[in-house]
Amino acid sequence: MSKRSDEYDYAGHFRAIREQERLVLAADEITWREKYETPARPVDALLYLGCHVMVTGHLAVEVTSVLDRIGLDYEAVGGMQFCCGIVHHSHGASEAADRISSATVERMRSYGAKTLIMWCPSCDLQFEEVIVPALVSDLGMQITHATQFLADRASELPFVAPVTSRVALHTHVGHRRQERDAQACLSLLSAIPGIEVVGTVSSPSLGYDCVTPEGLRNLPAQRDQLLDDARALGADTVVTLYHSCHRQWCAAQTDDLRVRNYISLVAESLGCGADDRYMRLRHANSADEIVNVSEDQWRSHGWTPERAGKVAETNFPGVAAAHNAKKQR
């Protein structure tokens, strides 16, 4: 059960996101808007990244790069000033959540976009089940998930290189929204030159993504079986559908079975892939190694080695333990 509204550390929650973002992204790589400014002109589409994707920042870099490649007239927004309110809502702070959601909706509307491209599954849930039914009578934009938006344009994507891989898509079942996203993702993956989709791996006990309470509770016991299922299908790569799942699956990558997000495969084939630095941090042997491999990123934000070390220890407390456990297997 989650903590009550008056017990939950909201400041610490969002601080952890910002800190991890600065370990994986240099300042000049953050091309989306994290601080709201009045738009200079209307755009055709608004890419809504949410907050937690910043932890796996390469995914935000890749999805914006993909939209750049197809020549979309869009703006991308994310971070605390564009929070959907689900963190407060899920901890019972409904009034605060409504204020946060309403402020974000007004900022979104100011871009004059016709289409709202959702990246985050939690934001998608909050908009579909709370914001649109209860707070706004007309959002003024058509909502579509990034998988569907790209799948609808798969035949127009200017692929430049094959990505030779046999992939199993990790999906979430029992939820209409997630099953819709999975079908769109399968269609998109099938359009990438060199990709062979060998099947899907899923468990109904994981909720709508891997960081729901049931997902966090059940994934440790389920993941090894799902990895075995992927190997049995002949996959060399498990593809994650959501950034939240990607965070939870990174530690499971092995020499014979890679873990990649679908947008990384799209971006690679379009010639605009980015380095999965979060994967490197999850596979580091110590906090010192995290500080060393992320130095270019944290220095660009004006951090000292001492601060980077403290952030690494705070946000990756299990790195050394996980590494030692892996060696003992």
Describe this structure in words.
The chain has 15 helices and 8 strands. The chain is α/β, with parallel strands linked by helices. The chain folds into 3 domains: 10-151, Rossmann fold (3-Layer(aba) Sandwich); 159-277, Rossmann fold (3-Layer(aba) Sandwich), CATH 3.40.50; 284-328, no CATH class. The strands form 2 sheets. A 4-stranded parallel β-sheet has the order 2-1-3-4. Strand 7, helix 9 (243-249) and strand 8 (258-261) form a beta-alpha-beta unit. The model has no long low-confidence stretch (mean pLDDT 93).
Task: Throw out a few tags for this protein.
329 residues, alpha/beta, Rossmann fold, 3 domains, four-stranded parallel β-sheet, 15 helices, 49% helix
List the helices and strands and how they pair.
Elements: H1 10-24, E1 45-50, H2 57-69, E2 74-78, H3 86-90, H4 94-109, E3 115-118, H5 121-135, E4 142-145, H6 146-151, E5 165-170, H7 176-191, E6 195-201, H8 213-232, E7 237-240, H9 243-249, E8 258-261, H10 262-270, H11 277-282, H12 287-293, H13 295-300, H14 305-315, H15 319-328
Parallel strand pairs: 1-2, 1-3, 3-4, 5-6, 5-7, 7-8
Helix pairs in contact: 1-14, 2-10, 12-14
